[in-house]
Structure formats: C-alpha cells, structure tokens
Amino acid sequence: MLPLDASNFATLLEDHDNFLFDCDGVLWKGNQLLAGAAESLTDLKKRGKKIYYITNNGASTRAQYAAKCRKLGLPAEEADIVCTAHFTALHVKDLLNVSDFVTPGTGPKIYVMGTPALELALTDLGLQCIGNGPDPVPEDFLEDDWRAESLDKDVRAVVVGFDKHISYFKLIKAACYLNDPKVHFVATNADTTFPSSSRDIIIPGTGCIVGPIVMACGRKPVIIGKPATLMIDHLKEHFYLDVSRSVFIGDNLHTDIGLANKCQMKSVLVLSGVSTLVEAKRYAESTAAADQDFVPTFYLDDMGTFYSLLLLS
C-alpha cells in the first residue's frame, strides 16, 4: 500500500484504460459535488479513458444516476452507470428465463422489498412485482393468525433492497416465500450502513433488512452489489472489460477495495468517505491472510489531489 503521488501516478495512468469510480464519498456527498471530481473525470475522458460509475445504492435507475452525474458536471451516459437496481433486475430476468420481448410487468411474479427504482428496473425487464410499498402490521395482528393461504402461489423470487417501509409483516412474507426452495432469493447488496454526514450518526443499510430474513429462512441470497463480483463479471462478459487494465477508485475498504482485490484490479482508496488511513494501515500490517483482501494498492486524500496529479502528468 503506497501513497498515490507524482512518482507512481504517471505509470498508473499509462497502464490503465478503465477507471471505475464509486460515487458517494468519492465524487459527491449527497447532492454536493466534491472538489476535483468533475475536472478529473473530464480530463480522463479527454485522454481516452473509459469511465464507469459503480454504486451499491439502489435508490435510482441508471437513467436517473446519469442525469444526476450530468447535473453535477460529471461526464456520464446511461451505459456508464453500474448500479444495483439495474443489475439485480438483469440477474433475476436471467434466473427466470424472461424473454427480451416480454411486455413490461407481465412476466414471472416476484415479491419485492425495495425502492421504487428497483421495482421500475424489474418491471422494465418484464417482471411482475408485488409487495413493494407500505405493508404495516395490523394493530390486532397475532402470529397465530398467519396462514400460508395469504401467500401468492405464483411468486418465483424474493428480491430485497433498501426498503424504508420495512415491517414485521414483510419479513414474515419474505421468509414464508423462501420456505419454498424453488423460490429464488436475491439481494441488491449487504451493506450494513449508509454513508452519513457524521460518524456519530449510524444509518442502517440494506444488510440490516436482508439479515433477519436470512436468519428466519436459513437461506443465503445471491448478492449483486460490491464486494460481490457479479456486476464486474457482467462488464467483462458483455463489454469486454480487461481487469488487468482497470483501476477501482473508492472510499470503502470492505466494498470497493474488497471488490477490486477479488477481481485482481489495482485500487485507490480515497480518504474523503467511509474508511480511514488508520483502518487501511491496520489491514496492511495484519498477519491474517483474510485482512489482505481489504488492502488498497494506493491511497490519496481526495479527488482534488487526484486532479492535481493529473495536471502534472
């Protein structure tokens, strides 16, 4: 693990054609563009580099993410966006052998716990979604009142993402559907928390919704988002991404750097987001083999520093 500086940046730039960026904490925080981000990505594009935006956040579709990028001054087309809503929908479509020509929302039925963007992505690829939105527990509900007859017998998969309407009723339904081994179990990601504006604030993430279902039904889902490799595997297969000439720039040691190491990509930890240099050094100095999965190739403070290095190259 080395600091990214003028002595090694030129080689990194020369040896890599593809630059994969995490978004929140690297390029922006919330709706605030971080200094140097737009300038850096615009410069990389002018040099002929391919840019991908890789995010576990399933709150937006690819089109919505591309629009946000452009509004912030980042160069982006829909095809550049690699987000869990779209790739979850692609995976479920393949699992259930849905035709490319099926009318949106008329294909196999799936039980969804997630964002409107996730439901839209699934529906657009032909899947029929049920269960999304509020489903509160009735005041007079008793566990003994639950009957399997309440389930839709046509459900072929359970798809779980971040769901602000999470309820005990939804957990029951998801677990009961998954009691049938023929029903597929897919989750957008397993992130335990979301990025927040303060380290004093903890915002539970999608993993906190997936976890109780796993415990109840005894099954593990297929995870789509980082650090799982499914999204990168898709880029390799369909867009001929050469990981040996790709570098991942992210702020999270467990998701971003973990993914890069799994895929044998070079990585840069940006210290403007989730993980700290102290944490990175602790992994680098550890004698445990598993800890090496989270050690970045390089680190630097922020995208402002990245742009300064670009100007010198």
Please state roughly what percent of the residues sit in beta strands, choosing from under 5%, 5-15%, 15-25%, 25-35%, 35-45% or over 45%: 15-25%
Class inferred from helices and paired strands? alpha/beta
State the oligomer.
single chain
Low-pLDDT runs of 5+ residues are none
Query: Using DSSP, what is the number of strands?
Result: 16
CATH topology call of the largest domain: Rossmann fold
Order of helices and strands: EHEEEHEHEHEHEEHEEEHEHEHEHEH
Mean pLDDT: 94
- The strands making up the biggest β-sheet line up spatially as 1-16-15-14-2-5-6
Report the CATH superfamily of the largest domain: HAD superfamily/HAD-like
What is the distance, rounded to the nearest whole angstrom, between the alpha carbons of the first and last residues? 21 Å
Shape, per Cα inertia axes: globular
In CATH, what is the class of the largest domain? Alpha Beta
Any idea what the CATH architecture of the largest domain is?
Answer: 3-Layer(aba) Sandwich
Please tell me how large the radius of gyration is: 21 Å
Domain module count:
2
- Tally of DSSP helical segments: 11
Largest sheet report = 7 strands, parallel
Percent range of helical residues:
25-40%
